[in-house]
Every structure is written in C-alpha cells, then in structure tokens.
Write a structure and sequence with these properties.
It contains 5 helices and 5 strands. It is of the alpha/beta class and about 160 residues long. Strand 1, helix 1 (about 15-30) and strand 2 form a beta-alpha-beta unit. About 30% of the residues are buried.
C-alpha cells in the first residue's frame, strides 16, 4: 500500500524523530524513501547580487547534509533512497514532488513555536496537510518530554 514514502526535511535536530518514524514504516512496507529539502527562495530574494551565489552554495550544502543524514539511516536499513533539493515555496514544492513521483504517503515534522501557536502545526505542515492528495503523517519534531510537561500543564494534571 505504501511503496513510496516522502520525508521532507529542514535539517533540524527534530528530524531524527521524524525520520525514525518514517524509516520504520518504510521498513515495514518495503518502501522506497524519498528525502526532500526545499529552500524557500522568497526568503533569499533580498540578498545582494554579489553574495547571492555564495548564499546559494551554502544553502545547497545545507540541503545536501540534511538529505544525506536521513539517506544514510535508510541505507543502514537496506532501504532504497532518492534525495532531492528544490527551490521555491516549501509546501508547494512538497506537494508537487509528491504528485510528480507517485508518493503514497508524506511523513513530516511539526514545528515547535512559542505561546498558543506551539499547539498548532507549523505553517508548512499545515498547508501540506490541507492540500495533499495523499495521506500525511505529522510527527512532533520537538523534545517529547517537554511536550508532555506542557500537555500536563494544559490539562491541569
């Protein structure tokens, strides 16, 4: 049922938890793992022309490191892996990749925030969940113990 699983990554430390869930499911399904890093190019539009190429190289390097980290873990589990770096709006690029590559499931992290927003999905995850034509599993990418403490405080136990 799940032959192609997409793991969008931002390279953050919380991706270890997300990757663990995704790779375990990929093992159970004998699925190919697709690891995608998307650079939000609108955030870099204001970079001066003379430094734009250095910034682009640095961002490509970040993407390569982020995708390699998950790919290595997948290879250790004898899973087939495809890696890609794209530029653009992250939510749009994730959905486009999923459609173009016949992805069966997207497994991605949520983003920890402060205040009330910390209980909501990150904006990229929220957009992907809303418009994805395939199932999306979100995994809390933050510290599990800190989340449980916050939940205890929220429900008053």
């Amino acid at each position: 049922m799940y032959d192609e699983i997409l793991i969008p990554t931002d390279g953050s430390g919380g991706m270890k938890r997300v990757a663990e869930h995704a790779l375990t499911l990929a093992e159970l399904c004998d699925a190919t793992v697709h690891v995608l890093y998307v650079v939000d190019d609108t955030a870099y539009a204001s970079i001066p022309d003379d430094t734009r190429e250095r910034a682009r190289e640095a961002l490509e390097g970040d993407g390569k490191s982020a995708t390699e980290a998950i790919a290595e873990r997948a290879f250790d589990r004898d899973l087939a892996v495809t890696r890609e770096i794209r530029w653009g709006d992250p939510a749009v690029a994730i959905i486009a990749y999923a459609v173009e590559n016949d992805i069966d499931m997207i497994i991605m992290g949520t983003r920890g925030k402060t205040g009330f927003e910390r209980y909501l999905l990150g904006s990229v995850a929220e957009k992907v969940v809303r418009v994805s034509p395939v199932p999306v599993v979100t995994v809390h990418a933050g510290d599990r113990e800190a989340l449980l403490t916050e939940l205890d405080e929220l429900i008053g136990t």
